[in-house]
Specification:
Blueprint: E1 11-14, H1 28-37, H2 40-51, E2 59-71, E3 82-89, E4 95-103, H3 112-129, E5 145-152, H4 171-174, E6 184-187, H5 193-196, H6 202-211, H7 216-225, H8 227-230, H9 235-252, H10 256-266, H11 271-327, H12 332-339, H13 343-355
Parallel strand pairs: 4-5, 5-6
Antiparallel strand pairs: 1-2, 2-3, 3-4
Length: about 350
């Protein structure tokens, strides 16, 4: 029994999505990840080229299918980009479920092993509840193997333990007695032109380079560099690339990515010049933006400096007044009224005066 069926409370599901349309969500980063991994070939390439799993040759890739089930947990329901695939092994002996969590926040989350555990338990619970009641009571009943994968595109270094048991106190002492699993980490920062050149999926290759673009100009440079691969993408892959390019244009506040992709798809002989112009225009826009930011920063800094200087001058004037009044023998209470300084500060000034030879 797979994931088809009536979902329980906390689960939303459907199995009829054969159009491979990316899930519609409000978070643009989540949409980007779901769009990429709605493509079966990109997901297979992720397993082969990024996870590099030893058991890939045992997987029946023809049986691999994306399952549109979203498990809703109270603590993390607004933070997930969940992609689930299921497949059978070549010998037909069992089933494997892949749970891909796209971690698209800029910072790392040290709760990740625990979060993955919660979702893995929900996957197993769902499988159990949708299995034949008599079959699940028999000795031959088996759960599917659940393989967790974290796809991380944040800027920080990923320093989260990749094994669940490292979250337990005394895990070194108790070893295999503790509940444990290891998740596969795909950190997009670890990929460059050289490391992706032999990837099976051209779409995954371009998308990984998108993650490291960091600007509109960088986005167009990626499109320029990989335009020969883009020209070979099929209709579904181009649709996904269009979705992702539009999202990145919104994030970067530019429409240059869409223009670049349109130029590549047009097959025009002038495409190289068009792309170079787009990059140059975007770099100039970035320089102007930085220049304006520097000017604004200097202006604000001067203004803040004047305010700070005035504040310090007023404070020093109060201290000088307190010192003069102390020299005249005025009481602390009178000086407090005259200067607005607290008693402790006036006593400090008195001690400094008495300490001088």
């Amino acid at each position: 029994m797979g994931f088809a069926g009536i979902g329980r409370l906390g689960v939303r599901e459907s199995m009829g999505n054969q159009s491979n349309e990316p899930d519609k969500v409000h978070n643009p980063h989540e949409t980007r990840a779901k769009a990429l991994f709605s493509n079966k070939e990109a997901f297979i390439s992720l397993l082969r080229d990024c996870v590099k799993a030893e058991w890939m040759d045992e997987l029946d890739v023809d049986s691999l299918r994306k399952v549109n089930v979203q498990f809703i947990l109270q603590d993390f329901s607004k933070k997930e980009a969940d992609i689930i695939y299921e497949a059978r092994l070549n010998n037909g002996s069992g089933k494997v479920v892949f749970y891909i969590h796209a971690e698209l926040q800029s910072s790392v989350d040290y709760r990740m092993p625990y979060r993955l555990l919660l979702y893995m338990v929900e996957i197993l619970r769902h499988h159990y509840n949708n299995s034949d009641e008599k079959a699940r009571q028999g000795k031959d009943f088996r759960f599917p193997a659940v393989v967790p994968i974290v796809y991380f595109s944040g800027s920080q270094e990923w320093t989260v333990p990749t094994e669940l048991r490292e979250m337990f106190d005394g895990h070194e002492r108790f070893g295999e007695s503790l509940l444990n699993f290891r998740y596969a980490l795909v950190d997009t920062k670890g990929y460059d032109d050289e490391s992706v050149k032999n990837f099976n999926s051209k779409l995954l290759k371009v998308m990984l380079m998108f993650e490291n673009a960091k600007s509109a100009a960088g986005l167009v440079e990626v499109l320029q560099k990989y335009r020969s691969e883009i020209a070979l993408l099929n209709e579904e892959e181009i649709r996904i690339l269009n979705v992702v390019t539009d999202i990145l244009d919104i994030i970067y506040g530019s429409g240059e990515g869409k223009k670049a992709l349109s130029a590549i798809r047009s097959g025009s002989k002038e495409v190289s010049g068009v792309l170079s112009d787009l990059i140059q225009n975007e770099r100039e826009r970035e320089r102007q933006f930085i220049s304006q930011g520097v000017k604004q920063g200097v202006k604000q800094g001067v203004k803040q400096g004047v305010k700070q200087g005035v504040k310090q001058g007023v404070r020093q004037e109060k201290l000088n007044t307190a010192k003069a009044l102390l020299g005249l023998g005025d009481s602390v209470e009178k000086i407090m009224l005259a200067t607005g300084l607290p008693k402790e500060k006036i006593e400090e000034v008195r001690k400094q005066m008495n300490a001088k030879p």
